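User: quick one, fold this
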Amino acid sequence: MLKREKSEKLYEEALNYFPGGVNSPVRAFKAVEGKPLFIKKGDGAYMWDEDDNQYIDFCCSFGPLILGHNHPAVYSNLIKNIANGTSYGAPTRLENELAKLILSKNPFIDKLRFVSSGTEAAMSAIRLARGFTGRNKIIKFEGCYHGHVDALLVKAGSGLATFGESSSAGVPSKVVEDTIVIPLNDIAAVEACFEKYPNEIACIALEPIPANNGLLIQEKSFLQKLREICDKNGALLFFDEVISGFRVAFAGAAEFYGITPDVVAYGKIIGGGLPVGAYGAKKEVMAHVSPEGPVYQAGTLSGNPVAMSAGIAQLSVCAQPGFYEDQAERTSFFTSAVNAYAKEKGYPFKMVSIGSIFWLNFDNKTIRRADEINSDMGNFKKLHKTLLEHGVYLGPSGYEVGFVSLAHSKEILKEASEKFCLALDACFKG
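Assistant:
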C-alpha cells in the first residue's frame, strides 16, 4: 500500500490556502475519488512524492517534459543563465536564439511571439485572426480545449451551426456569442456554418490532434478539407498545437500531416516545462501584431530569459535527427505490449497512440468525437488506483492523455507494460 501520510497532511493544509486545495483543477484527484499526491522531485522517467513513493511518470507535467525530468542539458543551461538574473523586462539574446532554432526548422511560420502560457497563445492567436480578417465569428470543435480563454470556454449549442453556450460560470453569454461550436469529424457542419454566416467567420480553431478530451485522432482528409474551406471563404485556419507541437514532430501536427495552418499556438514544451507559450504565422499575418500592427498583445514575462534558456536546451535535443522516430517507436513498443495482453484476455481496453502520446480507451473502438467517449469512468478509476499502487503515475482523469519521454527507455517501458497488465487484471477480474 502507498504511504500517503505526508501528502494527505499537505493536502489538508492546502485546503486552507487554495480552492479545492490545488492551483489547477486538473491536479485534483476528484475524478479518481482520492486526494492528490504532493510531488517532491523528478528525475528522468521517475517522480517521488513527499512520502518517498517512486513512480514511473507518464504525466510528464501534462506533456512539456519530452526529455523527462531534470534532463542534464536543460539543467545545465538553466543554471548557467539563471546566474545572470531571472527577468529584465527588456530583450535578450536568448529570445533570438530560441526563435531562430524554432523558425529554422518550421516552414509553416515566418515569425512568432513568445508569451507565458498556452492559454495566452491561443487567446492571442484568436485576436490576431479577428484583427487580420476584420471578422468576429470563430468556429471551434466540441472536444477541443484551448485554455481558459473566455471566448473558447464554450460547449455546443442546441443545433447545427448555432452559437455555443458558456461552459464556465463567470463567462457572460455576450463573450461567447460569436463562437460557433460544432462536432469534430463533421465537414457538413463546417460548410453549413459558412453558408449561414458568409464573410463573418475569422477562423476555424482546432487541435489538429485533439488530446485534451481523450485522444480524438482525426483523419488527414478532414484536416485537409478544413484547409480548403478556409481558403475558399477567406478565413484563417488556426492550429492549437499546445500539446502536439514539438511532440509528434518538431513542427508539430502541421509537419506530421503536411497541412499548412495560417496561425499556430505552442505551449510549455518550448520552455523545457517552464511557463512559456508562443503563437506564430506567416510574416504578412504577424505584421498585424503590435508594435508593428494594430492587434495589441503584451506580456511582462514574455521571452523570460530563464525559460528561454531551458527551451534552447530542450529543443536542441528534439531537433537531432531521428529523435521523433525513436520516440514513436518506443511508444509503440509500450502500447503494443499492453494491447496484445488486453486482446489475449478479451478485455474491453485499448491504448490509442500517435507519436509519443497515448490514451486509455475503455471502449476498444475508434473514437473521433467527444460525444463518442464512454462517460462511465469506473474502470479508469480502478486502473488509476491500482497503477499508483504499482508505482505508475498517470494524470488523474480518464480524459487525459499520457506521454512517453526520452527518459523512458525500453527497459523502463517493459517494466511499465508489465505493471499495466497486472493493473488490467485487477481492474477487470477484481
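User: anything notable?
Assistant: The chain has two domains: 5-70+322-429, 74-318.
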